[in-house]
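User: What would this chain look like folded?
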Amino acid sequence: LLQNLRHNRFFLIDKITLQMQDHDERSMRSDNSVIIERTELAEEWILKHLDLPDSDQKVLRAHTEYFIALHSYIDGHIRKAIHHLLNAVKIAGWKKKYVLLLLKCGIGNNTIQKLKKIVR
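Assistant: Here's the prediction, encoded as structure tokens.
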């Protein structure tokens, strides 16, 4: 299994660790449609190749839906963002970050960016 994970450039990190590296090709600065596609492929691969308990599969699916919703929102695809966000809610219930993203979808990214400029 470990050899297969190395070959596919996939790393498992324990439940306590969260690591993010800020770099020029970070997902928030990349082509969102590619990020979404790769995220869906990664989720599919994980569910197919790893024997995860149902609870972990649920967490993975909810995080994937939220991540896709977020990148859809950033890309200006509000209906798609809301669709994936509601899928996350169906899987994991309402969470603060889901409510915030839903509010942002309602307000719109352009309006939020204008408000940020005013506040600065």
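The CA atoms of residues 24 and 30 lie 8 Å apart. If you want, I can go into more detail on any region.
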